Amino acid sequence: VQLVESGGGLVQPGGSLRLSCAASGSFSGDPMSWYRQAPGKEREWVASVARTNGNTYYTKSVKGRFTISRDNAKRIMYLQMNNLKPSDTAVYYCKGDGEYWGQGTQVTVSS
What we know:
By secondary structure, the protein is mainly β. The protein has no helices and 11 strands. Strands 2, 4, 5, 6, 9, 10 and 11 form a 7-stranded mixed β-sheet that branches. A 4-stranded antiparallel β-sheet has the order 1-3-8-7, with no helix packed on it. The radius of gyration is 13 Å and the shape is globular.
């Protein structure tokens, strides 16, 4: 199983980024999730999306700003991040099946 994140970068406060997580290998992908880890902090859960019904779940701090989605045919998961804040600065990781991790992509929100 391999999960590869992309789409991170430097953005000004209020800006947007879209992260992608491309999956390969055999696993159910249910659920798929995004986590993040800021410098000096514990890794925290951000959002999840179910495989079958597409239900989505968000941590409170990103609700209304971030949108998680997935394309099962392409085996790609996305995280659309709008109205970004400096507090969103972190390495973002995707996670599959509750056990498989990607290598992470850096998101920096700064003016």
